[in-house]
Amino acid sequence: MQLALSLGARGLGNTWPNPAVGCVIVRDDRIVGRGWTQPGGRPHAEVVALSQAGAAAKGATAYVTLEPCSHHGKSPPCADALIAAGIARVVVALTDPDPRVDGGGLAGLRHAGIDVVTGVCEDAARRSHSGFLSRVQQGRPMLSQKLASSFDGRIATGAGESQWITGPDARRVVHGMRARHDAVLIGGATARADDPELTVRGQGAVRQPVRVVLSRGLDLPVESRLVRNLDHAQLWLVHGHTVGDAKVQSWEALGARCLPVLGTSTGLDVLAVMKALAEQGLTRVFSESGGTLTASLLRAGLVDELIGFSAGLVIGADGRPSIGDMSLKRLADAPRFDLQESRVIGGDVMHRWVRRAG
Ligand code: AOF
Ligand code: ZN
Question: Catalytic residues (predicted)?
Answer without folding.
Answer: 46 (proton donor)
